[in-house]
Write a structure and sequence with these properties.
The protein has one domain. The N and C termini lie far apart (about 70 Å). It is globular. A hairpin with a 5-residue loop joins strand 8 and strand 9. It has two helices and 16 strands. It is mainly beta.
């Protein structure tokens, strides 16, 4: 009888303690990743780029173009990743993290039809995005607190962002391989030198917007990228 009771208690702990039967969360951690490149466009854009989502940081609202981007909701974290080059947005995606920790490879390719100008002046249809010139590493959403403080890692570097805080970094290609830099005494000097040598540079800004309500997520038409 004692053994049977212990087995029953163990089963209860496994079912309820593992989180398998927890109710869906009413709030999610919202992380925005802003990617800026110097060499990621290989051709002229052939069509207008349509965004997958947009958000209102003051109203804590996220609007997506398609419900399939979000799934059923109730996940602990959502990442909105937007990429641009030379002021032109060429890709964006909504990443729903069903469980934490969640590892996200930000270098997953984007695709956008473009027009390649041949030496003789003819225009041929081709791929506008040069994904190999997007110099990115893994972002990991580790956990967050009840107040929206996020524990993150990028390229193996751990850091913590309170709601409203940002992490800034950059990666550029040198003769010795990829180099990563962060704001500091030699930040501008290194990036300026790389730019003058026409080396690919990718800047990344990661912003923690804290906890947003799931009932603030809507589906509707999203404007074209500016």
């Amino acid at each position: 009888m004692v053994r049977a009771s212990m087995v029953s208690l163990l089963l209860v702990a496994l079912v309820f303690g593992s989180g398998c039967r927890q109710e869906p969360l009413t709030e999610y951690l919202f992380i925005h990743v802003d990617e800026i490149n110097t060499h990621a466009l290989a051709a002229l854009p052939g069509v207008e780029y349509r965004l997958s989502a947009k958000f209102d940081e003051h109203g804590q609202k996220l609007q997506v173009a398609n419900q399939d981007l979000m799934g059923p909701g109730g996940a602990p974290a959502v990442v909105y990743h937007k990429a641009e080059a030379l002021g032109v947005v060429f890709g964006d995606r909504v990443i729903v993290c069903g469980r934490l920790p969640a590892a996200i490879y930000l270098g997953s390719p984007f695709s956008w039809p473009g027009l390649v100008v041949e030496p003789d002046g003819r225009c041929e249809t081709g791929e506008a995005v040069c994904n190999q010139e997007r110099l990115l590493l893994d972002l990991t959403i580790k956990s967050f607190t009840a107040h929206g403080e996020a524990f993150l890692s990028y390229g193996g570097e751990d850091f913590v962002l309170a709601p409203g805080e940002r992490w800034l970094g950059a990666c550029y290609r040198s003769q010795d391989g990829l180099k990563t830099v962060q704001p500091g005494p030699d930040w501008e000097e290194k990036l300026t030198a790389a730019y003058r040598e026409d080396r690919p540079i990718t800047k990344l800004q990661i912003t923690n917007y804290g906890l947003w309500p799931w009932n603030g997520v809507t589906v509707g038409s999203v404007d074209a990228a500016a």
